[in-house]
């Protein structure tokens, strides 16, 4: 008996473009884009500027733009990233 192939579809809510506010737009740009693309651009920014903590790779050290995104905190974990992004999109 052959196994049926899994037909997994992406969540349409995650594919819907969202509009970043001015704080988030400073990092990812001001055009509306899906959350996945916003997260990818934030990670590109973090890597480009060397903001990932050397000892604990899960931590992100904030520069001025990310500090505004993180609500004034000087660092955040990668798991908190989605929470902060949600606060800056509409």
Class derived from helix and strand content:
mainly alpha
In the CATH scheme, the class would be Mainly Alpha
Q: In this structure, how is the largest beta sheet organized?
A: 2 strands, antiparallel
The number of helical segments is 5
Question: What's the mean pLDDT score?
Answer: 90
Number of domains as seen in the coordinates: 1
How big is the Rg?
A: 16 Å
Helix and strand topology:
Layout (H helix, E strand, L loop, with lengths): L11 H4 L6 H7 L6 H14 L10 E3 L2 H6 L5 E3 L3 H6 L4
Description:
- With about 90 residues, the chain is mostly helical.
- It has one domain: Orthogonal Bundle (MDM2).
- About 40% of the residues lie in helices and about 5% in strands.
- The protein is built from five helices and two strands, in the order αααβαβα.
- A two-stranded antiparallel ribbon has the order 1-2.
- The N and C termini lie far apart (about 50 Å).
- The mean pLDDT is about 90.
């Amino acid at each position: 008996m052959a196994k049926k192939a899994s037909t997994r579809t992406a969540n349409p809510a995650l594919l819907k473009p969202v509009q970043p506010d001015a704080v988030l737009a400073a990092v990812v740009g001001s055009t509306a884009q899906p959350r996945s693309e916003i997260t990818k651009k934030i990670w590109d920014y973090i890597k480009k500027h060397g903001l990932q903590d050397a000892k604990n790779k899960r931590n992100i050290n904030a520069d001025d733009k990310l500090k505004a995104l993180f609500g004034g905190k000087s660092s955040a974990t990668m798991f908190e990233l989605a929470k902060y992004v949600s606060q800056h999109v509409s």
